[in-house]
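User: Please predict the structure of the protein below. I'd like the answer in structure-token form so I can feed it into my own downstream comparison script.

Assistant: Understood. Taking the following sequence of 200 residues as input:
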Amino acid sequence: MFTLPQLPFEPTALEPYMSANTFSYHHGKHHKAYVDKANAAIEGTPMANMSDVEVVRAAKAKGDQGLFNNAAQAWNHSFLWNSLSPMGGGSPMGALKDAIDRDLGGVESFGEAFKKEAVGHFASGWAWLVHDGSALKIISTHDADTALVHEGLTPLITLDLWEHAYYLDYQNARPGFVDSYLMHMINWDFASENYAAVAA
């Protein structure tokens, strides 16, 4: 069964880059709705005993789009909250920085490429830094789709590109939202942990 996790920081911790008002809707309403709908869909089925990752992958494999949409969005949002930090921004350290230098031309080039992907993504979806088994890549997925179900990809960090993620704070200015993420909110420690697990 899915659960709505507590935010890993206070709802005011990312202000002025992301407001407590945004979190009240994004976490308290949007994320909660995905969790509730996913749980309602799997209640009384063998999937109720699966992990959230297993449910997302099983729904994708079965072609159950309704369940996949809600389960994937529940997982994506839980991953998102950990991709944000009040101490975010700046540059990664250690092995992840070395990998970004090697595969993406450095942190500055990473930021430029990530912003281009995120801003250029049409309509709703997610921007990701992933590891494809041999190198780092920047991708985006549409709607509820998640890097989690793309074979060979391991998500390291993400940014929500749905308008509910930024509209209260940035209106239609997605580029400003992406800039704030890269400069002030991206949680490099979380990305480094995920990279260490896959690169070991």
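That's the full token string. The beta strands are 125-131, 136-142, 154-160.
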